[in-house]
Amino acid sequence: MRKIDRIIDSHVAPVGTFTVRRALPEGKRKSVGPWVFLDHFGPFRVTPSKDGVGPHPHAGIETVTYLLSGKNRHRDSAGHVGIVGAGGAQWMTSGRGIIHAEAPLADNEAEMTMHGIQLWTTLPRALKQMPPRYQRIDASTIPEVAFDGGNVRVVAGDYASNEGPAETLMPLLLWHVALAPGRTFNATISAGVEIAAYVIAGDATFSGQSATTGQLVIFDDADGDIAFGNAGDTTLDVLVLGGAPAEGQGFARVMHFQPMLSLEKVEAAEHPTKEEEPDRDRRNRLQDENTLSALRAFDATIRKHLNRDRVDYVMEPKVDGVSTLVTRMRQLEPRAWLVGTTQL
Predict the structure, then answer these.
(1) What gap in Å lies between CA 14 and CA 289, rounded to an integer?
(2) Is the distance from CB of 168 to CB of 113 less than 8 angstroms?
(3) Residue 248: what pLDDT?
(4) Nearest Cα to Cα of residue 114 among 215, 178, 212, 19
């Protein structure tokens, strides 16, 4: 049985029009397998015409939004559009570069409450320049495996010979475990797999150690099974994630972005068609134009000051809720970092 390496407390961070609990990356732990990012958002009430995350770029990674409640629309510069409800997932592979936006939708009162997890994986070096792709994973396609005292929803990877619907590009797993009070969950994990468990809701015990909502429990890298129990009096919800160790060393150095910003790509990511939203007003159009100006300024900064075709980047929020895209370019010789920023 694997022991616990450490327990990470998530911290509050602003993203778009709301705040999240961010558990990964963390000071001493940058990844778990290929997973390099974990944000827990909600539950909170949304305003569909106002809330969401506007157009922003990614490259060299995958973004995964797993919904626990609400409804979410994905749109990107490659022309993909997808809507999923509670229990579903948006799985986007950015590859050589893409701009996307996500926004809540609601057709009824239940869908006004948004709750979910967003994760990123880093792509293997050989796949960082692949064409972007998108997978809409409907809740009905995710296997739900019952066991004594709970169930497992297999979003990706394999559990008890049940394969998740996500088409993965490297060895990884993503399971949502629901556990009744007083019960225990056990799973066999393959050798060489890094593994962690994020407590979505409830109180848990891991090898004698306690963990609660918003904490990420990192298992040690020794081979063996994992186990945890429900120490509370309500259902325990845990997201189990892991996989083969990520290529590269550190969070910023494994995500690459090539300048590829254009009016067409921003519009494809952000602007709905007339059929979808006929009442889109001038204020939102001006907001999009401001976003485009910021993206153009960012592109110009890269080309003028960095003069490189490979960029390492991370998204860092500001306290006022406006995102800042912090760009790090690693020069090959010498190995130095240059930094440029732009507000989105």
Answers:
(1) 22
(2) no
(3) 55
(4) 19
What pLDDT shows up at residue 54?
A: 82
Tokens of 107: 């057709």
Cα 341 off chain centre by: 22
Mean pLDDT computed over 142-171: 97
Q: Is 118 exposed, middle or buried (0-12, 13-18, 19+ CB in 10 A)?
A: buried
C-alpha 13/C-alpha 312 separation (Å) is 21
Rg of the chain in Å (alpha carbons): 20
Tens of pLDDT along 37-56?
999 999 999 988 788 888 88
Question: Is the CB of residue 111 less than 8 Å from the CB of residue 71?
Answer: yes
Instruction: Indicate the range of 133-147, 166-180, 284-298, 299-313 predicted with least confidence.
Output: 299-313
3-state secondary structure 239-273: EEEEECCCCCCCCHHHCECCCCCCHHHHHHHHCCC
Q: What does each C-alpha distance from 156 to 31, 103, 172, 317, 340 come to in angstroms? A: 17, 23, 7, 29, 36
Backbone angles phi, psi at 82, to 5 degrees: -150, 145
Statement: the pTM of the whole predicted model exceeds 0.85: no
Q: Of 153, 177, 152, 155, whose CA–CA distance to 166 is shortest? A: 155
> Which H or E element spans position 170?
none
Place of tokens 């979505």: 200
Q: Which of 190, 193, 195 is nearest to 238 (CA)?
A: 195
**Torsion of the alpha carbons at 67, 122, 23 and 231, rounded to the nearest 10:** 70
Nearest to 173 by CA among 212, 217, 121: 121
Distance CA 20, CA 235 (A): 22
Bridge partners, 337 (sequence order): 330
The tens digit of pLDDT for each residue in 155-166 reads 999 999 999 999
Q: Please measure the distance between the N-terminal and C-terminal CA atoms of the chain and give it in whole angstroms.
A: 46
CA nearest 268: which of 276, 279, 258? 276
296-313 burial, b if ≥16 CB within 10 A, otherwise e?
eebbeebeeebeeebbbb
Is 284:272 a contact under the CB 8 Å cutoff? Answer: no
